[in-house]
Amino acid sequence: MRRERLLDCSAFTMWRVRGSSPFTVGAAGAARVVVCLDGTGTIEHGGVSFPVGKGDVFVLASVIGVCGFRPDDAVTVLELALPERLATDDPGTAEARRSDRRPGSSQAAEK
Question: At 97, is the pLDDT very low, low, confident or very high (cuts 50, 70, 90)?
């Protein structure tokens, strides 16, 4: 199994995981998005197995925590994490922050 950090910026962090042996996805207390780019396998959590195939996307809520990923053969998976401050914002607050940064918005013009 090989885990590579592809991107780490203020908006999110992204890793690519490749391998054919079991690995973990998710993190305690943090929301994650898992995207299967190639191959098939199973995400396991709480004694339940969820089949995963190429093109499937799973959103792991922060209360889920760490899950096992058991590939059927070689897989390539992206795992994305939001920074804690963005993950805990309510949707209205996050939208307001984005609109503040848009060119031409009244608040952006005042800054």
Answer: very low
Any idea where the domains of the chain sit in the sequence? 2-101
8-state DSSP, 55 = T
Mean pLDDT over the full length of the chain: 84
What letter would DSSP give residue 88? T
Name which of 86, 69, 88, 87 is nearest 78 in CA terms. 69
* Rounded CA separation 32/108 (Å): 30
**Domain 2-101 superfamily per CATH:** Jelly Rolls (2.60.120.10)
This prediction has a pTM of 0.74
Q: Which of 65, 39, 63 is nearest to 52 (CA)?
A: 39
* Beta strands, E only, 1-111: 2-8, 13-19, 23-25, 32-38, 40-45, 48-53, 57-60, 67-71, 75-81
Q: Which residue has the higher pLDDT, 57 or 83?
A: 57
